[in-house]
Amino acid sequence: MPVVLVADRSLSVVSPTESPLWEVRDVSDIHGTIWALTASAPFVHAFSPSGKLTSRFGRSGEGPGDLRFPHTVWPGRPNGGLTVWDQGFSAALTFSSRGNLLSSLRAPNLGAIRDDIATVTFGHPFRAVGVPGGFVAARYDSGVNHPDDLWNGSLFLVPDDGGDPHMLIDFALELPGASMRSLAALLVPVPLWDGCPDGRIAVLDPITRTLFLLDPADPRPEARESITLPWSSPPLNRDDRLEYMTSRIRAEAGDNGLSDAEILSAATEAEKRAEPVFPDEAPIGVDLKCAPGRVWIQEFDGSAHPLGYGRSWRTATLDRSPATFSRVVFPADFQPHRISASRALGVVADPAGHHHVATVLLESTARQGQPPNTLSTSTDPTVAQSQGEHQ
Questions:
Q1: Mean pLDDT value across the chain
Q2: Does the predicted TM-score (pTM) go above 0.85?
Q3: Residues 316-332, buried b or exposed e (16+ Cβ, 10 A)?
Q4: Please, is 375 exposed, middle or buried when counting C-beta atoms within 10 Å of its C-beta (0-12, 13-18, 19+)?
Q5: Vertex 357: Cα angle to 356 and 363 (nearest 5)
Q6: Bridge partners, 295 (sequence order)
Q7: Considering just the CA atoms, what is the radius of gyration of the chain in Å?
């Protein structure tokens, strides 16, 4: 495997350092404007390519144009600046670039999901993606309270024309790995999915290590393509289990004033008791991003985050036989939200926990050390290892 070192200067901070964002949920480049969606109002922030804040809107409320629990953004159609998926309203709201509400499209009831699920498990049950002719979201008829509940989800296409939604795939019935799940309950592998730039949907069965590609225009099982992933997962070790239990106890303790030593002591005891409910192996992935011609799967890294959100990603090429695979390690503190053929768009966190929109160049010229004229925030290089081809 050839190894390519990507200098830290391939990372560029886009949003102004004097205007930090809190808990960015999504980032998207729409016609040259970079939109960041945050967890608190004003929810929507627009930045020019040079990093200037050009628009900010999105009140919290129940009225027309207000937002309750926005989670994802994608290009507005046909003439809107952007569409915001709001899980709280189960609606896709299309706004102009200045925040004027242009249209809305409601989805059916998608099931009750505990509001802190993002601290309990990976799997992103609030995800929705825009596709030609509508948008795709996950429905959980039994609700989501625990990681294994994500296996009971179904992906539905909600048409733009107001027609009846129709199912694309039922994870529990149609993913082969569903019937092979263990009895473990914590840090268990769950289905991962994302929309691709060409309109297809990529779904990962983490048990059989198979990647499926669905066309919303032809959701028949026989029309799906599949790719078998060749890599395996390392054991889930005690440190991984302890880190997870520590994070859960810290979250549940809240403001009760427990010291770090008390939390660690409780977590150590809890980890001993809970060992049987953890799987033997680490999950094969904790997130999935579909890019042009390639799917990216984030490796589990318990030392970086209690839920395994680390720096390393595996990639698999699409529409190529045989598929080729690669491994990419992003700069420290960078988390991608969108990946194109030439760059990753995401956020970096500062020491205070605030987010700043950032990009990482993936072009060969960037890997050879051509620096952008912007700020870098880490000191380690990014390493890409590939079998065949780099992105």
A1: 88
A2: yes
A3: bbbeeeebebbbbbbbb
A4: middle
A5: 135
A6: 290, 316
A7: 21
Instruction: Give the E-state strand segments of 143-199 in sequence order.
Output: 154-159, 166-170, 192-195
- The Cα–Cα gap between 40 and 56 comes to 12
The pLDDT, as a whole number, for residue 23 is 92
Q: Which amino acid is at 73?
A: V
Residue numbers in the chain where pLDDT is lower than 50: 1-3, 364-391
CB 126 within 8 A of CB 151: no
Surface-to-core class of residue 336, CB atoms within 10 Å of its CB (0-12 exposed, 13-18 middle, 19+ buried): buried
The separation between CA 365 and the C-alpha centre of its own chain, rounded to angstroms, equals: 27
Q: From CA 216, how far away is CA 231, in angstroms rounded?
A: 28
The pLDDT assigned to 363 comes to 67
Smallest Cα–Cα separation from 312: which of 278, 287, 337, 276? 287
Tokens (6 digits) for 285: 């992935």
- Closest Cα to residue 10, out of 386, 389, 384, 387? 384
In this structure, the chain runs to a length of 391
Residue pair 233/283 in contact (Cβ under 8 Å)? The answer is: yes
Cα–Cα distance between 46 and 58 in angstroms, integer?
12
Question: Which residue carries 């890599």 as its tokens?
Answer: 231
Joined tokens for residue 76: 């507005």
- Specify the DSSP element, H or E, that contains 31: none
Query: What span, in angstroms and rounded, lies between the C-alpha atoms of 141 and 154?
Result: 9
pLDDT reported for residue 108: 86
Q: Mapping DSSP to helix (H, G, I), strand (E, B) and coil, where does residue 195 land?
A: strand
What's the burial of 248, exposed, middle or buried (CB within 10 Å: 0-12/13-18/19+)? middle
Residue with tokens 């799997």: 123
CA-based nearest residue to 96, from 122, 72, 67, 65: 65
> For residues 387 and 5, what is the distance between their CA atoms, to the nearest angstrom?
15
Q: Mapping DSSP to helix (H, G, I), strand (E, B) and coil, where does residue 152 land?
A: helix
Question: Parallel, antiparallel, or unpaired for β 33-38 and 44-47?
Answer: antiparallel
DSSP β-bridge partners for residue 225: 213
What amino acid occupies position 248? R
Report residue 377 as tokens: 């925030």
How many Cβ atoms are within 10 Å of 84's Cβ, its own excluded? 27
> pLDDT value at position 386?
42
Q: Looking at the DSSP assignment, which residues form a beta bridge with residue 169?
A: 155
3-state secondary structure of 105: strand
CA–centroid distance for 191 within its chain? 12
